Amino acid sequence: MNTKKYRPSLIAATIYFNYFVWGSSILIVSQYSQQFMRLWNTDVKGISTVISMVGIGHLVTVIFAGWMSDKFGRRNTMVIGLISNIIFLMGLILSRNVYMACFFTLFLGAANSFDDSGAYPALTEAFPTKAASMNSLVKACMSLSQTLLPFLVAAVSSVSIVLPIMSVLLFLDVVAIFMIKFNKEDLDPVEATEIAKEEKEEIKEEVAEEKEATNGHLPKMSIDGVGLIIIGFTISFTFYMYSQYIPHFGSTVLNLSEAASKELVSWYALSSLISVFITSIVIRKAQPYHVMMLYAAIAGTFLVLMITFPSYLLVRITSIVIGFFAAGGIWQVGLTIISQYFPDQKGKVTGYYSFAAALTYFVGPFISTFIIDNTAQSMIYVFAIDAFVTVAGVAVMLFLFFRCHKYHFLKAN
Fold it and tell me: Where are the transmembrane segments (predicted)?
């Protein structure tokens, strides 16, 4: 590959900017919920229904988004994601009822699928020797955006101003992407075929060496793979539900002002931003399952404490805890493990793992629509479900931990 044909730093810049805006997009409905309720003539149940559409949009597109990335290139796939996000943002303004809002929110889920399928492979190809750290910065950009969003909401009260600005920023990113070259697209067909063959041979050698080193004991997809996919679901469920509903918890359970309730998301997002960097260091020195179990157990403990003894101080602490121990990087640790377990099926298992995360975007808000209303008790029930799923995830982690001792190659990077 002729590295002079492209600039990896520019590839990274366009990707990180995209995720910076996307981080705000995923929370925009909950942050401006009062305005959207009036605009769409609905209530908190309607808002929850709209949020659940992100999951459906993600689920119906995540299966073929990866195929499109390999077939049509990283750049084109990312552009589809960016345009989908623009459609979502402008669609929210055009919507005059919940049904229209639900339709346009499907595009945000699609944006997530195409962004991930284009961005992560592009970063891996552009930075082959430090792909893990470059990929982790995607989460950092999202966390930074979500940290700043409540302050933006406080400064700019009209969502009709914010959404067009976000759309323009995404359009500028589309222009920037077309002005640079992505290394995958720069390969000629013959060179691409040769590289693919070399990678396939390397994977075969890795599997053979691992099988010999572990006396034939290799992870089983039906047990270890399924368990990790379940963990991908539980981890995502923990932080996604928390980030979407903690403002409602603050206003209904603690009777906080709208501004104070939304600030809880800032504590959560800032903590997750810090965690991205700390966890990347910790995971190099500790057994991955130890880290995941400890993080998830702490998150589950504070969720239980929060719903048992709700107070403003405890909720702020819990926001910090969930941001750090649930949203700051352990999902990526699980992805690393499943990729190491099944190197010859890396693309397939990554798709399954991401699909489980996408499922939470729909399942959590959908279940909540049957529970949630404007009462404090309903919000306690919503977070009790979040705590239950988190604890269940810890149990699965513990089971897989006892199995992993026979595999010597389990080491994240």
Answer: 12-34, 46-67, 79-108, 152-180, 226-245, 265-283, 295-314, 320-338, 350-372, 378-402
Q: CA-to-CA distance for 391 and 319, rounded, in angstroms?
A: 17
Q: Total domain count for the chain?
A: 2
Integer CA distances (angstroms), 4 to 14, 187, 196, in order: 18, 12, 21
H or E element that contains 319? helix 312-325
Angle at 412 between CA 272 and CA 6, to 5 degrees: 80
* CB within 8 Å of 360: residues ≥ 6 apart: 55, 233, 236, 237, 240, 241
Q: What is the mean pLDDT of the chain?
A: 83
167 and 263 co-located in one domain:
no
Residues ≥6 apart with Cβ < 8 Å to 177: 14, 75, 78, 79, 82
d(CA 304, CA 369): 21
Q: Are 249 and 315 spatial neighbours (Cβ–Cβ below 8 Å)?
A: yes
Residue of higher predicted confidence among 52 and 164: 164
Residue 174 lies in a domain: yes
Range of the domain at 309: 219-413
* Predicted local distance difference test score (pLDDT) of residue 189: 56
The model's pTM: 0.74
- pLDDT > 70 fraction of the chain, expressed in percent and rounded: 86
pLDDT for position 332 = 78
174 and 223 inside one domain: no
**CB-hemisphere CA count at 13 Å for 222?**
0
